[in-house]
Design a protein that fits this description.
single chain; about 170 residues; Four Helix Bundle (Hemerythrin (Met), subunit A); two-stranded antiparallel ribbon; 7 helices
């Protein structure tokens, strides 16, 4: 059985972004119940040189839209970067999910050898095939940032477990 580029990306991104949004909801409820300033959690990081919770969520959404949008040849939506609340992060995730769901399988499947160049803000460039971009860059980064966001909240006492992280599989 062959797994297509679309099957390896869109349903995975939707499943885990939905779970991440749900975890953020639990974090907001935790902060309210425990009288914790939400900004404390939003600015928490595992180590001083790592991204904050907010930045982890931003990166997870960026890699999700890139993983389906670039192979499809679509302009990536601007999700912003000024989120200051759990609700705003959940809105960002909802925009990313809507974009991922808007991409059709036929826009992604068959693009495995398509050449893609990413230009970074520092001027550096990386060259990928669409398959390498998805499998070796977007998916690993997506999982890393999603898991790190989960880890930050778990470390801060938010009652979440593996099932919360995994979410529910999605059929698109």
């Amino acid at each position: 059985m062959t797994v297509s580029m679309y099957q390896a990306s869109a349903p995975i991104f939707v499943q885990f972004l939905t779970a991440l949004s749900d975890i953020l909801g639990k974090a907001a409820a935790h902060a309210e119940a425990k009288k914790i300033d939400p900004h404390f959690l939003l600015n928490m990081r595992i180590a001083p040189d790592m991204y904050t919770l907010t930045q982890q969520v931003q990166q997870a959404t960026n890699h999700a839209i890139s993983g389906v949008g670039r192979p499809a040849g679509l302009e990536l939506p601007d999700l912003g970067k000024g989120e200051n609340s759990f609700g705003e992060l959940q809105e960002r995730i909802a925009k990313a999910i809507a974009f991922v769901k808007s991409v059709k399988p036929e826009q992604v499947d068959g693009t495995e050898s398509k050449e893609i160049t990413i230009k970074f803000p520092n001027g550096a460039e990386r060259h990928f095939t669409a398959q390498a971009l998805l499998l070796n860059f977007c998916l690993p980064n997506f999982y890393f940032h999603s898991a790190t966001a989960y880890g930050i909240l778990r470390h801060c006492g938010v009652e979440v477990g593996k099932r919360d992280f995994m979410g529910t599989p999605v059929q698109l």
